[in-house]
């Protein structure tokens, strides 16, 4: 089975670096699509990927690392499969985005619910980010 490069979650698409993460939480905007809280920050186009994400599952809500890792994997997989909903409009607008996805619920939701909420989250993010760009017509 062939896997296209577009379908992977590459190293550049993972938000890393203390400075970038602290700037995201200090200067970013946020909204909630339960069970997720999204913090995002918009930039003009950079050389790396159009979107860099960070997924956080609080230890306060899930003491066991196994549960945190499962939720993190499910969230990243749902994002990976649906990231074109966000990346395509961002690339056409010439923007890049740093974002953190924080899990808020106290229970582990099934994967299909997580994926549905990630889709809603990405659609809402596009509607918040793209209208702020100058009209291209």
Biggest β-sheet: strands ordered side by side in the sheet: 1-2-4-3
Cα shape: globular
Strand count, sense and barrel status of the largest sheet are:
4 strands, mixed
Give the mean pLDDT. 88
Report the C-alpha radius of gyration, rounded: 15 Å
Total strand segments: 4
Give the helix/strand class. alpha+beta
Number of helices: 4
Explain this structure to me?
With 137 residues, the protein is an alpha+beta fold. It has one domain: 2-Layer Sandwich (Ribosomal Protein S5, domain 2), CATH 3.30.230. Helices cover 42% and strands 21% of the residues. The chain contains 4 helices and 4 strands, in the order αβββααβα. A 4-stranded mixed β-sheet has the order 1-2-4-3, sandwiched between helices. α2 packs across α4 and α3 runs parallel beside α4. It is globular, with a radius of gyration of 15 Å. The model has no long low-confidence stretch (mean pLDDT 88).
In a few lines, what is going on in this structure?
It contains 4 helices and 4 strands. The protein has helices at 18-27, 65-82, 84-93, 111-129, and strands at residues 29-33, 36-44, 51-56, 95-103. A 4-stranded mixed sheet has the order 1-2-4-3, sandwiched between helices.
Short key terms for the protein model shown above:
single chain; 137 residues; alpha+beta; Ribosomal Protein S5, domain 2; 4-stranded mixed β-sheet; globular
Helices and strands, with pairings:
Blueprint (H helix, E strand, L loop, with lengths): L17 H10 L1 E5 L2 E9 L6 E6 L8 H18 L1 H10 L1 E9 L7 H19 L8
Parallel strand pairs: 3-4
Antiparallel strand pairs: 1-2, 2-4
Helix pairs in contact: 2-4, 3-4
């Amino acid at each position: 089975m062939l896997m296209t490069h577009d379908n992977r979650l590459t190293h550049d698409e993972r938000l890393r670096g203390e400075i970038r993460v602290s700037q995201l939480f200090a200067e970013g905007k946020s909204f909630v699509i339960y069970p997720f809280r999204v913090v995002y920050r918009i930039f003009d186009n950079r050389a790396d990927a159009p979107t860099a994400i960070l997924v956080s599952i609080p230890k306060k809500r899930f003491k066991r690392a196994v549960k945190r890792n499962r939720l993190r994997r499910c969230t990243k997989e749902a994002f990976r499969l649906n990231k074109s909903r966000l990346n395509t409009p961002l690339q056409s607008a010439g923007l890049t985005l740093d974002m953190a996805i924080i899990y808020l619920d106290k229970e582990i939701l099934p994967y299909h619910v997580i994926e549905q909420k990630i889709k809603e989250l990405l659609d809402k993010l596009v509607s918040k980010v793209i209208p702020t760009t100058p009209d291209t017509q």
